[in-house]
């Protein structure tokens, strides 16, 4: 077959260009450490690489969400723990104030510290995170969630609870709205509350009581009324007498599955109430105690009323502490769940990285060997072209 000079020349050039392209590609692979430079290099591998890259990005987002969640939950846990410490101090002050040796002046001094502790609680409830967001405001994180008004303490946030996705099928709340942490706490003993009529003239004091029969307990309201210093009757919410008995100082008075104790001398007309527990904010609980201690009591009946108010406050504080401890436990459970998910994410990240490496990473030993072969092939093509280019018919004449 006859081959023209131009065709021979073109074949030589194309051979060199092909070898140069192969060499350039291998050189780029070695420089980047990647064996897939374009989808056409390995269509199946390219698709797999894209899938793994997307999975890697999702896992990295889960990790970022997890770090944010961990930070916010640990801050919330710290605030709730500090609030429990404050309430523990409030309880200690309550017990101290309930001592018969306390004077009006000493109780007012205790009330002064109570108000300082109340300020601490309010400050904790209005805590901001590192981004300046109020952590107990729900979705209204740009505004202070708690404030004091003439009518009491007000929650300005909402009940929103943001969920952060920390795994393919796992989301966790990054906090709790203040309405669930500092508000809506059942007062009294958690089932019912007791109280003394401010108009009582005797010096008897009622305790917080307890539920003795859940089968009979149906959240009814009752009034214990003394018909004389030695006799009392129990009335229901409609004013009907449901029982009556001789008064025994410190003895049990049972009604509706509940039992209370009244201690001290009572007077005819004295009344004590037993009513269902109501939801209350913990700030008002401490405030009520401070107000009681700030009010001078100069009569036996006045001091008895104050003792009943202190007993009520102690029961309220116990309920508030239990409430916060339960919240603290819930936060701890979330942190444990997050820790387990973080370990799962770390394992997934490692597996994805290994698979990406198998798909994308270059085998340097093979690539360098191939580079040397391609370099030799290019040199051979260049030498062959040089010799062919030098051929002429005149060399044989």
TrEMBL record:
Protein localization: Bacterial flagellum; Secreted
Cellular compartments per GO CC = bacterial-type flagellum hook; extracellular region
User: Sorted alphabetically, which Gene3D superfamilies does this protein's record hold?
Assistant: f41 fragment of flagellin, N-terminal domain
Gene Ontology molecular function, alphabetical: structural molecule activity
User: Keywords for this entry?
Assistant: Bacterial flagellum, Secreted
Pfam families from the UniProt entry: Flagellin_C, Flagellin_N, flgK_1st_1
Give the GO biological process terms. bacterial-type flagellum-dependent cell motility
Outline the extent of the Flagellin N-terminal domain: 3-140
Q: Which residues form the Flagellar hook-associated protein 1 D2-like domain?
A: 196-276
Query: Where's the Flagellin C-terminal domain?
Result: 314-397
Presence of keyword Secreted? yes
Does the keyword Aminoacyl-tRNA synthetase feature in the UniProt annotation?
no
PANTHER family annotated for this entry? FLAGELLAR HOOK-ASSOCIATED PROTEIN 3, FLAGELLIN
Under NCBIfam families, the record lists: flagell_flgL
What name is this protein filed under?
Answer: Flagellar hook-associated protein 3
The organism encoding this protein is: Zhongshania aliphaticivorans
């Amino acid at each position: 077959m006859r081959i023209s000079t131009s065709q021979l020349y073109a074949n030589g050039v194309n051979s060199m260009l092909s070898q140069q392209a192969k060499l350039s590609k291998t050189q780029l692979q070695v420089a980047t450490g990647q064996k897939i430079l374009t989808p056409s290099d390995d269509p199946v591998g390219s698709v797999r690489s894209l899938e793994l890259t997307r999975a890697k990005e999702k896992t990295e987002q889960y990790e970022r969400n997890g770090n944010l969640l961990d930070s916010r939950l640990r801050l919330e846990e710290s605030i709730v723990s500090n609030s429990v410490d404050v309430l523990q101090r409030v309880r200690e002050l309550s017990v101290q104030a309930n001592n018969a040796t306390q004077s009006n002046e000493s109780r007012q001094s205790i009330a002064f510290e109570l108000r300082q502790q109340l300020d601490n609680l309010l400050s904790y409830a209005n805590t901001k995170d590192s981004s300046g967001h109020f952590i107990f405001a729900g979705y209204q994180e740009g505004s202070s969630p708690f404030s004091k008004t003439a009518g009491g303490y007000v929650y300005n946030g909402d009940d929103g609870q943001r969920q952060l996705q920390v795994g393919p099928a796992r989301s966790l709340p990054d906090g709790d709205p203040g309405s669930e942490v500092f508000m809506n706490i059942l007062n009294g003993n958690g089932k019912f509350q007791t109280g003394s009529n401010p108009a009582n003239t005797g010096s008897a004091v009622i305790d917080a009581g307890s539920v003795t029969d859940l089968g009979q307990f149906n959240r009814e309201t009752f009034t214990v009324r003394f018909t004389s210093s030695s006799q009392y009757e129990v009335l229901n919410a409609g004013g009907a007498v449901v029982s009556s008995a001789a008064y025994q100082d410190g003895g049990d008075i049972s009604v509706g599955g509940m039992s209370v104790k009244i201690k001290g001398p009572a007077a005819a007309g004295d009344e004590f109430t037993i009513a269902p527990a109501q939801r209350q904010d913990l700030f008002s609980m401490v405030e009520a105690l401070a107000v009681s201690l700030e009010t001078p009591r100069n009569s036996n009946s006045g001091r008895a009323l104050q003792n009943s108010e202190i007993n009520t406050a102690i029961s309220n504080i116990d309920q508030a502490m239990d409430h916060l401890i339960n919240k603290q436990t819930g936060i701890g459970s979330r942190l444990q769940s997050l820790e387990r998910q973080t370990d799962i994410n770390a394992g997934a990240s490692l597996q994805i990285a290994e698979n990406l490496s198998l798909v994308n990473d270059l085998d340097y030993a093979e690539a360098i060997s191939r580079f040397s072969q391609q370099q030799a092939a290019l040199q051979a093509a260049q030498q062959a072209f040089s010799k062919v280019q030098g051929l002429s018919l005149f060399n044989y004449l």
